[in-house]
Design goal:
The complex is a heterodimer of chains A (about 525) and B (about 325). Chain A is mainly α. Chain A contains 19 helices and eight strands. In chain A, helix 3 crosses helix 10 and helix 15 packs across helix 16. Chain B is of the alpha+beta class and about 325 residues long. Among the domains of chain B are: about 80 residues; about 140 residues, Rieske [2Fe-2S] iron-sulphur domain (Rieske Iron-sulfur Protein, 3-layer Sandwich). Chain B is extended and about 100 Å long. In chain B, about 30% of the residues are buried. Classes of the chains: A mainly alpha (about 525), B alpha+beta (about 325). Chains A and B meet through helix 5, helix 7, helix 8, strand 4 and helix 10 of A and helix 3, strand 3 and helix 7 of B.
Chain lengths: ~525, ~325
């Protein structure tokens, strides 16, 4: 035994005698993680969060979250002598006088953008592969919660510097609060400590941004990861992969080296982006004042689709009995996002109700094999993208020489027409891909070699695919439509006939599929 | 039904293929060197970072293609940090991929559900615990506990009451009063109709009484836009026309949709456009909404001139400015 081993042994024994950790560690150091690039998306979100904590802590050392009025006398000449809030002045100080301060601001902002991108793409991966199915519904809901909080946290974060652009964002948020029926103006006056903008809002959202929400994030992320750990990761279909096993690399050393290394890669890429691509140059916007605005006001991308929905809303208000209800704000700003996020959170339960499938699933779906789910996802994505495009309608219009009105009408019609089209096209596409899979398994790969038959006819030589590939393409279960009957075994009418009919119908739509190749099919074709 | 038909067989996990570095000591040495070089590059990045932090002057700007002119200190600090972090990661991953075991292992899964006996025991002990507390029997305790738990939630809610004052009439009022002079923003100079040519626009605020301070709260409600047209261009009813003065019309600058500053005036079409959500207001028709999500015209301020010939407000706004709210009487 070397000296080093002896010391390590003593330390380990000291800890184990007080915690009993060895038994747990023994089991978990060999924990198996499946490998796939799409499993890195959630990791990017996690690492961005750590980068946000580190860079954010650095920024708080200088940031002064106060709307107290000061006269600027810092290094940045163009704003010299201007009245502004201490929040804005201290952000300028971080940007121009603290060495590396601007870099850290950029890292913080880039990491926030990346955090949201990673969450959304991770969510899409989980959705389209069906990873949310039993037993992972809780983790899906936690994920939807993290997405929602991320949007709020990001908005509060870019509102803190109190520049002309972010102040305009707060103004819009205030208008949404104020539009709430009955309680709107009260909640707004409580939140802002009086009329807009007041001097209370930025100190308050600072506490929420740096303490309350990060705390909730930390708790939710911990539970999210513990569940992943405990339930073991899902895996893509392939040879040797079953619902009962998990095939991959052990935590120590491979997965730890890869995951740990990947953290540094994400941090490095964020730092690189921050070094070369400047975002949110608040010194160009000037301090916030409610009487001014800059053209082309844009929120960060994850708020863009909401802003786009607000922009395309028809000018509807109800004026009755001395009261006003602003549908033009409530529908795009609260009701539609509310429906979308609720639908997102409930989706696993809706799908399992329609399919009647209550079993555990650990093998991921290939999106083409679940045409209905994939089509619903494409529909929701199309809706959001039309919203996002309209959120940048002024920029798009000036870039492509269109008028704002053309853009707006495109979005107003597109938001209604394009999602259903996306649904139909995606569903057809999935079925076509299933058909292509079937052909591939039955007839093999096209080799590109042409053969001239004695009769003079030309045929292309097909090469059979490997047994592994044939398995991957046919391992999936094909859904069976529910057939709930109106009557029970004794011939009596069962309650909820309409509900059952609806469920049967949706289940039939859900079960549409091109029959997959069976072993018999293959045998028959061999005899050919 | 798929499970009744004979499916294609699972061939099992494919046999492991060895890498070059697993068998060839030369390839192994080479991979080791590559990892060391990657870690070394990270150290170079840290050196670049330290150099930039201490010695690079603040005021050097360099031109980069595509990206434009950038501050050299900020750029090299960032590049140094990026290199130092990225290559630690690259080294670790290259190490894992070339030198650490790459044989896939199989672990078994177990159903999440607990064993039936565990479940039964759990239900039994939960029932036992509940019975010991006797909550089911002691309804007086149950009800009083429910009541006090319900009430205790009120205290933290009540504590939030002092977050802000009640709105009162605040949203309905501005600083504009009868006879308040219109002064330029910025500059605080009173203006005469002759200062504005036809087609001109000006942002104005109410003149301050001596000793008064202007807060952002005031600007958020008081900001007004003056636009001068030829008087015959107006298409207004008599009442609204009487609120203009020599072709000068005054609107609240705070958008009736969500409160942004309606700052874009198109002289040719005489349209006012809000840059936030593109609500478009037609000036000759009293800022009638002709496009976008706004549902109401911008409130118009009645103006005239005082004895010295300076523009003044005839009277306060006759309706609340800014975005709608529940208590707003918009009829």
């Amino acid at each position: 035994m070397t000296a080093r081993e002896r010391i390590a042994g003593t330390v380990a024994s000291y800890v184990d005698e007080r915690t009993g950790a060895a038994a747990w560690m023994k089991k978990n150091l060999n924990k198996v993680f499946p490998d796939h690039w799409s499993f890195l998306l959630g990791e990017i979100a996690l690492y961005s969060f750590i980068i946000l904590l580190l860079s954010g802590t650095f920024l708080t050392f200088w940031f002064d979250p106060s709307q107290r009025e000061v006269i600027y006398d810092g290094n940045y000449e163009p704003l010299s002598g201007l009245k502004m809030s201490a929040a804005y002045a201290s952000t300028l100080h971080i940007s121009f006088e603290v060495r590396g301060g601007l870099l850290m601001r950029q890292i913080h902002h880039w990491a926030a953008l990346l955090f949201m991108v990673a969450i959304v793409v991770h969510l899409l991966r989980v959705y389209f592969t069906g990873a949310f199915r039993k037993p992972r519904e809780f983790n899906w809901i936690i994920g939807v919660g993290l997405l929602t909080l991320g949007i709020v946290e990001g908005f509060l974060g870019y509102s803190l510097p109190d520049d002309l652009l972010s102040g305009t964002g707060i103004r819009i948020a205030e208008a949404i609060i104020q539009a709430l029926p009955v309680v709107g103006s009260y909640i707004s006056f409580f939140a802002f400590g009086g009329a807009f903008p007041g001097e209370a809002f930025i100190p308050r959202i600072f506490t929420v941004h740096v303490l309350l929400l990060p705390g909730i994030f930390l708790a939710l992320i911990t539970v999210h990861l513990m569940l992943v750990w405990y339930q073991k990761h899902t895996q893509y279909p392939g040879p040797g992969r079953t619902e009962k096993n998990v095939v991959g690399f052990p935590l120590l050393p491979v997965y730890m080296a890869k995951a740990g290394g990947f953290f540094f890669i994400v941090f490095g890429v964020t730092a690189f982006l921050s070094a070369v691509a400047s975002i949110n140059p608040i010194w160009l916007y000037g301090p916030y004042t409610p009487g001014q605005i800059s053209a082309g006001s844009q929120p960060d991308w994850y708020m863009g689709w909401l802003d786009g929905l607000v922009r395309m809303a028809p000018p509807l208000e109800t004026h009755a009995f001395g009261h006003t209800i602003s549908w033009n704000i409530l529908i795009p700003g609260l009701i539609l996002p509310g429906i979308m996020f609720t639908g997102l959170a409930l989706y696993p339960f809706i799908e399992s109700w329609i399919s009647g499938d209550k079993r555990e699933h650990h093998i991921l779906d290939r999106p083409r094999n679940v045409p209905n789910r994939t089509a619903i996802g494409a529909m929701a994505l199309t809706f959001t993208i039309v919203g996002l495009l309209n959120g940048g309608n002024d920029i798009i219009a000036t870039t492509f020489n269109l008028t704002i009105n053309q853009m707006m009408w495109f979005s107003r019609i597109g938001i209604l027409v394009l999602p259903p089209i996306a649904f139909v096209v995606t569903k057809r596409l999935c079925l076509s891909l299933q058909r292509a899979d079937r052909d591939l398994v039955l007839h093999g790969r096209e080799t590109g070699t042409l053969l001239r038959m004695p009769s003079g006819e030309f045929v292309e030589v097909h090469e059979p695919i490997s047994a592994e590939k044939a398995w991957t393409l046919t391992q999936h279960e094909q859904p069976v439509p529910l057939e709930l009957s109106d009557t029970d075994t004794r011939g009596l009418k069962r309650p909820g006939a309409i509900k059952n009919k609806l469920r049967n119908r949706m289940s039939r739509a859900n079960a549409v599929a091109v029959p997959k190749v069976t072993a018999q099919d293959l045998k028959e074709i061999e005899h050919h | 039904m798929s499970h009744e038909i004979e499916a294609i067989k699972d061939p099992g996990v494919p046999a492991h293929v060895h890498r070059q570095a697993d068998s060839d000591p030369k390839a192994e040495k080479k991979a080791e060197r590559q990892v060391a070089i990657l870690f070394g590059l990270s150290a170079v990045g840290t050196l670049l970072f330290i150099y930039s932090y201490i010695w690079l002057p603040e005021d050097v700007f360099i031109y980069l293609p595509v990206l434009g002119t950038t501050n050299a200190k900020q750029l090299f600090l960032g590049l140094g940090l990026a290199l130092s972090l990225f290559f630690i990661g690259a080294g670790a991953i290259h190490w894992a991929k070339t030198l650490m075991p790459d044989e896939e292992v199989i672990a078994m899964r177990h159903e999440m559900r607990s064993e039936d006996s565990d479940r039964k025991d759990f239900v039994a002990s939960a029932k036992e615990g509940a019975a010991a507390a006797g909550l089911g029997r002691r309804s007086l305790i149950k009800r009083s506990l429910g009541l006090s738990l319900g009430l205790v939630g009120l205290s933290p809610l009540l504590l939030l009451r002092d977050l802000g004052p009640l709105p009162g009439k605040d949203l309905e009022t501005t600083s504009w009063k009868s006879g308040t002079r219109l002064v330029t923003d910025p500059g605080d100079r009173p203006i005469k109709p002759s200062d504005l040519e036809v087609g001109a626009v000006a942002q104005v605020l109410p003149a301050l009484a001596p000793g008064e301070e202007r807060t952002l709260n005031n600007i958020g409600k008081d900001a007004v836009l003056l636009i001068r047209l030829r008087p015959e261009e107006f298409q207004l009813d008599a009442e609204k026309l009487a609120m203009t003065h020599e072709g000068i019309i005054a609107f609240s600058k705070i958008c009736s949709h969500m409160g942004c500053a309606v700052a874009l005036y198109e002289q040719q079409t005489k349209h006012l456009l809000c840059p936030c959500h593109q609500s478009t207001f037609d000036v000759p028709r009293g800022a009638k909404v002709i496009f976008g999500p706004a549902a109401r015209p911008l409130p118009q301020l009645a103006i005239s001139v005082d004895q010295e010939g300076y523009l003044v407000a005839q009277r306060p706004f006759s309706e609340p400015v800014g975005p709608s709210y529940w208590e707003r009487n918009s009829q």
